[in-house]
């Protein structure tokens, strides 16, 4: 082998061995004429799907090379199916990103064996909004407040142990003494709402306020649903009549559990790239995402779809992940007990 060929082979091996390294090909050269796959960890019609499809329609023009972005649903296990695939099997060249459950990065911390990824190794791209999650019931359930939730059983839909609908209901049962019974197995939040309308279940938790306004405002305006509990660090300006779960909690232990569950709300609907993507492409995706959040055409489309836009960048999401992973182990143990 000639010296030149040897040096080229060594360089090629080094490029493979150094995840996150800057590639020899420019970002524009890489993305030019390509398709960027945006995978959605939930089924069609819910909040994750709605946000992702509006973003997919506008983000490509902000990426050097202007790739076409194609949105595809990959539901399963509260988005853990997608999270695991992104971590273990997805291309690591920047051609694939995904939007996963806001709580998904914390599943390994909760000893969920179905979460086979290291959350710290994802490349966080950004989110479009901070979320306010709600527990709600159909008016026919005759449940109007926390006292009713403690006195009567409420059948609520679930989308997998890792998802907000399940976690919030389980922790509320333990920390607040509510009696919500989870009927699991729905592929996405929109499927739960359809089940509520059919009478299969009578309520749900983990229902984002932005999603209600964007996709089911008719249920609210017609009085067919009642908003019962608010999972958020502070009350949304439009939800001052809906109690914060931490205001209802009666012990420090209960408040600690609830605060742990609330923390991921700041993750919104996170967009992530697999580990090992060249750093220049990660940086380009992060910049393109935040540029999209200020794009007048995107903001107009988001407003028409009823979507709130209060974005966070990838570095902010990384900091949230690190902060949650520093939670007192005693609090985590209580949450594990409540959600298993």
From TrEMBL:
Matches recorded under InterPro entries: BUG, Bug_dom1
Domain of life: Bacteria
SUPFAM superfamilies on file: Periplasmic binding protein-like II
Family: Belongs to the UPF0065 (bug) family.
Annotated PANTHER family: BLR1237 PROTEIN, TRICARBOXYLATE-BINDING PROTEIN
Protein name: Uncharacterized protein
Organism this protein belongs to: Brevirhabdus pacifica
Species lineage: Bacteria, Pseudomonadati, Pseudomonadota, Alphaproteobacteria, Rhodobacterales
């Amino acid at each position: 082998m000639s010296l030149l060929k040897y040096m080229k082979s060594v360089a090629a091996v080094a490029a493979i061995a150094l995840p996150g390294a800057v590639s020899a090909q420019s970002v524009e050269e890489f993305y030019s004429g390509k398709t960027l796959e945006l995978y959605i960890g939930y089924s069609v019609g819910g909040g994750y799907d709605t946000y992702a499809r509006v973003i997919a329609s506008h983000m490509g023009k902000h990426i050097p090379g202007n790739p076409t972005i194609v949105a595809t649903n990959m539901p399963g296990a509260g988005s853990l199916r997608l999270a695991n695939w992104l971590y273990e099997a997805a291309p690591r060249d920047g051609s694939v990103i995904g939007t996963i459950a806001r709580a998904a990065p914390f599943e390994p911390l909760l000893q969920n064996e179905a979460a086979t990824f290291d959350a710290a190794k994802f490349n966080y791209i950004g989110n479009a909004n901070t979320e306010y999650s709600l527990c709600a019931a159909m008016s026919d359930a005759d449940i109007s407040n926390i006292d009713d939730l403690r006195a009567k059983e409420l059948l609520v839909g679930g989308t997998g142990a890792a998802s907000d609908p399940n976690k919030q209901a389980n922790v509320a049962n333990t920390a607040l003494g509510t009696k919500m019974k989870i009927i699991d197995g729905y592929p996405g939040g929109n499927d739960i709402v359809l089940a509520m309308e059919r009478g299969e279940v009578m309520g749900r938790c983990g229902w984002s306020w932005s999603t209600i306004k964007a996709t089911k405002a008719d249920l609210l305006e017609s009085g067919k649903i009642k908003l019962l509990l608010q999972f958020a660090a502070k009350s949304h300006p439009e939800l001052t009549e809906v109690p914060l779960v931490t205001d209802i909690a009666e012990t420090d232990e209960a408040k600690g559990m609830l605060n742990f569950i609330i923390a991921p709300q700041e993750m919104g609907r996170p967009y992530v790239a697999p580990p090992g993507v060249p750093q220049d492409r990660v940086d380009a995706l992060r910049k393109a995402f935040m540029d999209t959040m200020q794009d007048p055409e995107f903001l107009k489309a988001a407003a028409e779809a009823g979507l709130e836009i209060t974005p966070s960048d990838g570095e902010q999401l990384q900091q949230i992940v690190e902060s949650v992973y520093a939670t007192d182990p005693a609090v985590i143990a209580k949450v594990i007990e409540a959600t298993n």
